[in-house]
Design a protein that fits this description.
- The protein has 199 residues and is an alpha/beta fold.
- Helix content is 49%, strand content 12%.
- It has a five-stranded parallel β-sheet with strand order 2-1-3-4-5, with helices on both faces.
- The chain is globular.
Amino acid sequence: MVTRLAVLGDSIAWGQGAARERDRLAPRLADGLALCGLEVDVQVFAVPGARSSGLASQVRAALAWSPSLAVVVIGANDLTHRAPVADAVQALAAAVRRLREADVEVVVAPAPDLSSVPHVPAFLRDAVRAAGESLRQHQVAAVVEAGGHVADADQRASRAFAGDPSLFSADRFHPSSAGYAVIADALLPALLVAADLRP
């Protein structure tokens, strides 16, 4: 039986910056799940540039496809556009609840640490890191309360990006193909847990 996996969120969920389509996040997640014995049909509903406020329309589109698993990658654009934390978190929580009401297991990758982005000036990095951590903490609490799973709880991916500039693509913001491999590896454990919870 093939499991349907919906990928929602922003440009990272969509795969911007990858050199090849198969290097994007969704195909990498599908490959990782296949190696663990779970065959998936993956569909990307993510929109580059999306903020949490845009998740509702993605959720509607995804539910029309009837997935049993969903991955949501969101938060970077909320940070870059200085969206109010409460508004962003409320929108994410609503998206997770709607998916759960439809019996979809949900894995959320919350906001990354943007202080590691190469073009962020050194004098702003502490402030950027603090803003990201605040959003992330609120996202984690909201996702758990709504019945979702949180991926990369120890921020392994963000730490890897901070230590290896090659994980960024040529625009020095989005991940490279190598960066997407790191992100997929960080998301897979939570996704496997969610998949195992399926009847």
